[in-house]
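Bench notes, afternoon.
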Amino acid sequence: MIPLKDCKKGYFYRIQARNFQVGIFDGNTGFIGIREKFEDRYLFTEYHWDTGAPFGTVHPTKELGIYGMDLNDKKKMFEFLKPIQEKINEERQKEYDKWIEGLKKKRKEKIKEQV
């Protein structure tokens, strides 16, 4: 995990958090990312783990680069983050599908052994 003191304002990070996997550091304690809730998508802020309970939910794991645009322009920020988050979601879905197929295969093998 990248400590809060080492996070850079305006940079975007791969993160482990409750609601999204990539976020732009706001320069204070928050990471802004796209949250999905009931099929709605909107910008949302979660806070670095170092801020403590109950709001510290973000573990930044990798600096990805500089965002380089106005942090107050939420429309541009959303459009910047959207394809990155979608790519991560696709990768996570592939991993999940692979895991499910592995479980199905193990289950079939176990059934064959019992017969």
